[in-house]
From TrEMBL:
UniProt entry tagged with the keyword Cell inner membrane: no
Protein name, as recorded: ATP synthase complex subunit 8
UniProt keyword list: ATP synthesis, CF(0), Hydrogen ion transport, Ion transport, Membrane, Mitochondrion, Transmembrane, Transmembrane helix, Transport
Biological classification of the source: Eukaryota, Metazoa, Chordata, Craniata, Vertebrata
Topological type in the membrane: Single-pass membrane protein
Gene: ATP8
Listed transmembrane segments: 6-24
Amino acid sequence: MPQLNPNPWFFIMLTSWLTFSLVIQPKLLMFLTTNPPTNKTTPLTKTSPWPWPWS
């Protein structure tokens, strides 16, 4: 069964994976910027106890 022969396709897959992970991915990650973290203050909310009908 020739489709089970991994001889040419494994090398192509390995080469393309290494090219992506070692060459293309670092170049793409240089362009992606994340949002800088902001210091937000959380508003203090006053909570009231739940009025249970049986107490």
